[in-house]
Specification:
TIM Barrel; 3 domains; 43% helix; Enzyme I, Chain A, domain 2; 17 strands; single chain; binds magnesium ion; binds phosphoenolpyruvate
């Protein structure tokens, strides 16, 4: 019988399909067999994990494929499995033997002197879990049937990226938040998603309808509901197709106000979602995802930035220096065990603690700036003194490059405005541009964590206090004669766009998948009419 479960809207759209439950590994169990059976079970799980990784490599491109390639190399290394087989011979169950062997291996990587190896511990943990999933018969994330509804307590961004969404599908989560990174990815790819379903997520089986816009998941939907949902889905598709047909046209409101629409890039796949000519440039490139494993590798970073600049083909490309920490930890670089990571050592604060790593990135950015109009952006700036300190490193790097024989340029040096104290004091920051990070600005201003399902309703960008800060930053930008844009999620939220334009914002940077509908929403607005804009 039809059963409706209400959660929180994380990504609009309708998806109907079979529920595929990703159960947490901690809850899984299996019966232990003989030594020979345990040996065979582990061997089979490793083979299946290898196959799944090989398929994933085929689908991914660029750095993502390289990252997974490292996992493949580990899986093919017999030394990794030998220790587990030895434990099985001594009587351990395959899962316990594998866990124990991997724990030793991971501890070895975590205590390595070289930061590169320390960062690889996360890959080992990923491999450990992949093999365990197969041992427990939970399947591999990479084997999810296309068009399925993924049901889980929560979902890691890497799991999301491992799924082929091109044939549809949706997500229903027991926990999670509309402002989490995986929700942002879902919106960017147009994958319907409802979060915060509570314990009810465990009951989602069979045919499931995910209505992202209405924040509802329906189990066993009636034929009437399926009919109306399909009709509504067709209408949405039709509107989407129209928006895509016009995606390369400029975004002008009804009264002729031009709004620049740029894209946020969080990984190489984002460069394939829309053609560069559809956007006015890259408003935010999140380097935590592009270069997380390459912190000391100037050449690899240079190549990643150069690829972005070439993709943008003459349009401005704003590349943010590392914003690790908070909900974006980088093992071996960010601090473990902070009581509140969002209020801890993250973003620029961490870069200033690691000047050697910061300068590698600044060097690579200055070199890539030769190839096109690149802009450097600092995340999580709180004090003017931090901007001064960052500029000090910047000058030192430029002087160093001037003394060498590699080509470099000196791009614009701007800041993200996402800390309320900085927003209210924006006029004091001598930056070349401001980009408002509404995700963090909203969570800090409303005291509601961006990844907490329980407080998601509080983290509202339309809160008058948040809008007042945005308007203040726009005013400060005008007074200083510098550009102001928004690169937080609110820029891609059609419900928030009228208020943002009313606050004076004229440049929005959005997830590439949202660009067509953002432009369509801008075209619907008339800023000359009372109530619609400034
Ligand atoms: C923001 O905080 O709005 C932002 C764009 O940065 P991130 O989401 O990467 O923290
Ligand atoms: Mg932020």
């Amino acid at each position: 019988m039809e059963q409706r479960i209400v959660g929180r809207a994380a990504s609009d759209g309708l998806a109907i399909g079979p529920a595929v439950i990703l159960r947490a590994l901690e809850a899984a169990s299996r019966a232990k067999g003989s030594i020979a059976e345990e040996h065979a079970a582990l061997a089979a799980a490793v083979v299946r994990a290898r196959q799944a990784v090989a398929e994933l490599i085929e689908r991914l491109e660029g750095d993502a494929a390289e990252l997974i390639g490292f996992q493949m190399a580990l899986l093919e290394d017999d030394a990794l499995t030998e220790a587990a087989y030895a434990r099985i011979e001594r009587g351990a169950a395959a899962d316990l033997a594998w866990r124990a062997a991997m724990a030793e291996e991971i501890a070895g990587y975590e205590s390595a002197d070289d930061e590169y190896f320390r960062a690889r511990a996360a890959d080992l943990a990923d491999i450990r879990d992949r093999v365990l999933r197969h041992l427990f018969g939970l399947g591999d994330d990479g084997e999810l049937p296309s068009g399925a509804i993924i049901v889980a307590r929560d979902l890691a961004p890497s799991t999301f990226l491992g799924v082929d969404w091109s044939k549809g599908g949706g997500i229903a989560l027991g926990e999670g938040s509309p402002t989490s990174h995986v929700a942002m990815l879902a919106r960017g790819r147009g994958v319907p998603m409802v979060v915060g379903l509570g314990q009810a997520w465990e009951r989602l089986t069979g045919q499931v309808l995910v209505d992202g816009g209405r924040a509802v998941v329906v189990v066993d939907p009636s034929p009437e509901l399926l009919l109306s949902a399909r009709a509504e889905g067709d209408e949405l598709m039709h509107r989407k197709a129209n928006a895509i047909a016009r995606q390369c046209e400029p975004a002008l409101t009804r009264d002729g106000t031009a709004v620049a629409v740029l894209v946020n890039i969080s990984g190489p796949a984002d460069m394939t979602t829309v053609p560069a000519r559809a956007c006015d440039g890259v408003g935010l490139a999140r380097t935590e995802f592009l270069t997380a494993n390459l912190l000391r590798d100037e050449e690899a970073q240079y190549r990643a930035y150069a690829e972005l600049v070439r993709w943008a083909d003459g349009r401005p490309v704003t590349i943010r220096t590392l914003d690790a920490g908070g909900d974006k930890p980088i093992p071996g670089y960010t601090l473990d065990g902070e009581s509140n990571p969002f209020l801890g050592l993250r973003g620029l604060r961490l870069s200033l603690r690691h000047p050697d790593i910061f300068r590698v990135q600044l060097r690579a950015l200055a070199r890539a700036a030769v190839l096109g109009p690149l802009k450097v952006m600092l995340p999580m700036v709180t004090n003017v003194a931090e901007l001064d300190a960052a500029r000090g490193h910047w000058r030192a790097v430029l002087d160093e490059l001037a003394g060498g024989n590699v080509a470099f340029a000196e791009p614009a040096f701007g800041i993200m405005v996402e800390v309320p104290a900085a927003a209210l004091a924006a006029q004091h920051f001598a930056a070349d541009f401001f980009s408002i990070g509404t995700n963090d600005l909203t969570q800090y201003a409303t005291a509601a964590s961006r990844d907490g399902a329980e407080v998601a309703d509080y983290a509202d960008v339309l809160h008058p206090g948040v809008l007042a800060m945005i308007a203040h930053v726009v005013g400060a930008g005008r007074a200083r004669g510098v550009d102001v844009s928004i690169c937080g999620d609110a820029a891609g939220d059609v419900r928030a766009i009228p208020a943002l334009l009313k606050a004076g914002v004229r440049a929005l940077s959005v997830s590439p998948g949202l660009l067509p509908q953002v432009k369509a929403a801008i075209r619907e607005l008339d800023l000359a009419r009372r109530g619609e804009g400034a």
